[in-house]
């Protein structure tokens, strides 16, 4: 029987994707790579999906790449890890970054290597207080991949990014939240309830406006002010033409909750 490496369910506009190799701390093999990518592509393709919730099964979020499949003691040619990134990691990361819908990540345990960096590509990250983020690459002679050297430098700045990646010291969830690397650390037994509620809130929101906001924030670091003001103008024009904008203003004037449809 084929292992279902990523569990998926759709409820209330939220596509929940659960990394599902708990016996390997949800480390990536090729099947899990492709299953996660298929899930993110589904979120692109289906209008009924208005938010994504990503988490892990068992006691960890994701331990990165499954190194058991690359045991050098077995002999054979040396691996082309650049090809692994080109064909497996990077297409998925680009899909996640380009998704015009919020991705919520619930880190339920250790997030190591690429597992940590995939979390950082998500839009809002919550972590259990017992969780730790580990840039484990230097322990095996590699560089931070899955966008790690990009995300950490942009979010934390050069000193902390270098220290985390060169030392491979575990970063507790509460420190990650204090440093602004994730949104918040919550009690372990409250993590999934809080993440699920947040994902539902995002799915009930004005989807077009949220997606445009995500795009603007992502572009801000590389745009100059004039370019960004023009981008804001164009995005606001698009948002103002949506039915959700009309509903939001109407609800405000009528002093009632908005009933957004994602259009």
Give a brief outline of the structure.
The protein folds into two domains: 6-203, 2-enoyl-CoA Hydratase, Chain A, domain 1; 207-253, Lyase 2-enoyl-coa Hydratase, Chain  A, domain 2 (Orthogonal Bundle).
Note down, in words, how this protein is organized.
Helices cover 46% and strands 16% of the residues. It has 263 residues and is α/β, with parallel strands linked by helices. The chain folds into 2 domains: 6-203, Alpha-Beta Complex (2-enoyl-CoA Hydratase, Chain A, domain 1); 207-253, Lyase 2-enoyl-coa Hydratase, Chain  A, domain 2 (Orthogonal Bundle). A 6-stranded mixed β-sheet has the order 1-2-3-5-7-10, sandwiched between helices. The protein has a 4-stranded mixed β-sheet with strand order 4-6-8-9. Strand 1 (6-11) and strand 2 form a beta hairpin. The longest helix is centred in the middle third of the chain and has 18 residues, at 81-98. The protein starts with 5 loop residues before the first strand and ends in a 10-residue tail after the last helix. The model has no long low-confidence stretch (mean pLDDT 95).
List keywords for this structure.
Lyase 2-enoyl-coa Hydratase, Chain  A, domain 2, 2 domains, 263 residues, alpha/beta, 2-enoyl-CoA Hydratase, Chain A, domain 1
Please describe the topology of this protein:
Blueprint: E1 6-11, E2 14-19, H1 30-45, E3 51-56, E4 60-62, H2 81-98, E5 103-107, E6 110-112, H3 114-121, E7 124-128, E8 132-134, H4 148-156, H5 158-167, E9 171-172, H6 173-178, E10 184-186, H7 191-203, H8 207-220, H9 225-240, H10 243-253
Parallel strand pairs: 2-3, 3-5, 4-6, 5-7, 6-8, 7-10
Antiparallel strand pairs: 1-2, 8-9
Helix pairs in contact: 1-2, 4-5, 8-9
């Amino acid at each position: 029987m084929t292992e279902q490496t990523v569990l998926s369910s759709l409820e209330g506009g939220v596509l929940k994707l659960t990394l599902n190799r708990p016996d390997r701390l949800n480390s990536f093999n090729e099947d899990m790579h492709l299953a996660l990518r298929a899930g993110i592509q589904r979120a692109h393709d289906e209008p009924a999906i208005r938010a994504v919730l990503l988490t892990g099964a068992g006691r960890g979020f994701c331990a990165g790449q499954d190194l058991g499949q690359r045991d050098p003691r077995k002999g054979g040619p040396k691996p082309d890890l650049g090809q692994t990134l080109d064909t497996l990691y990077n297409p998925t990361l680009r899909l996640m970054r380009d998704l015009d819908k919020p991705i919520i990540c619930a880190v339920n345990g250790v997030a190591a290597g690429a597992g940590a960096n995939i979390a950082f590509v998500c839009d809002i990250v919550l972590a259990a207080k017992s969780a730790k983020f580990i840039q484990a690459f230097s322990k095996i002679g590699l560089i931070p991949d899955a966008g790690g050297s990009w995300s950490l430098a942009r979010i934390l700045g050069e000193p902390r990014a270098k220290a985390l990646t060169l030392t491979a010291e575990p970063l507790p969830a509460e420190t990650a939240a204090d440093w602004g690397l994730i949104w918040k650390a919550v009690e372990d037994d409250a993590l999934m309830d809080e993440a699920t509620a947040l994902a539902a809130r995002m799915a009930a929101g004005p989807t077009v406006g949220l997606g445009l906001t995500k795009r603007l924030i992502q572009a801000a670091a590389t745009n100059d002010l004039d370019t960004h003001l023009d981008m804001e103008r164009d995005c606001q024009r698009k948002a103002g033409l949506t039915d959700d904008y009309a509903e939001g203003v109407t609800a405000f004037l009528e002093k009632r909750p908005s009933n957004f449809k994602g259009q």
